[in-house]
Amino acid sequence: MRRLVAPAVRAAALSAAAMGVVTARWSALHWGATTEETRDPLPGDDVIRTPGLVATRAITVQAPPEQVWPWVVQLGAGRGGFYSYDRLENLVGCQVHSADTVVEAWQHLEVGDLVHLHPQVALAVAAVDPGRSLVLHAGPAMGVAGSAGAGPGAPDAAPYDFTWAFVLRRHPHLATRLIVRERFAYLHPWSFLLVEPVSAVSSVMSREMLRGIRARAERASRLQ
């Protein structure tokens, strides 16, 4: 009997462990978002039509969209930062300093402008609808440095295409649903080996970023 029970127990344990990993991964990719929000089409989805990985995260901010948008539009290294773990980001040279105030000089973005993640890494503004949405895109033609001319075969070119969308939806009682979506397209069969750990790190940083935006917007709203 023991010879029959032991393999069954091991199989059940492995199955439970696998299910736990899948559940944890799903939760990391959809932190704070409703099922409807994960399925809804959002601005920027048309840039990458067949993604290999999609992450949709969200948070409710007790402030109207017009008071949340200023914190979103000034995101970036050398700008308002990312309201996340600055010390961790700066360990890899990001030179990020998260702002605690809205700075007028950082309030204007146009399509084609660059938003830096690092002094040598930038995303381009693919679309901007002030007060409603901001879509950033790191296409394969940009390369790691965010400069034109670095084609997908260049040494510094990223092995994946990527969009980062920030969407603000008016919520009842003067609140805002802030939804952030990442979409990755694999440019090589092995791209997922890099995208998966990148997405895992992004999950941790994005959660803190959303909380950071919420804290700043709600504090500013209370002071008005």
Descriptive key words:
alpha+beta; 2 domains; six-stranded antiparallel β-sheet; 5 helices; 6 strands; Alpha-D-Glucose-1,6-Bisphosphate, Chain A, domain 4; 224 residues
Briefly note the structural class of the backbone: alpha+beta
CATH class of the largest domain reads: Alpha Beta
Which whole number gives the mean pLDDT? Answer: 85
What's the arrangement of strands in the largest beta sheet?
1-6-5-4-3-2
Q: What is the H-and-E element order? A: HHEHHEEEEEH
Report the β-strand fraction as a percent range: 15-25%
- The CATH topology of the largest domain is Alpha-D-Glucose-1,6-Bisphosphate, Chain A, domain 4
Give the biggest sheet: 6 strands, antiparallel
Number of separate structural domains: 2
- The termini sit apart by 72 Å
| Tally of DSSP β-strands | 6
CATH homologous superfamily label of the largest domain: START domain
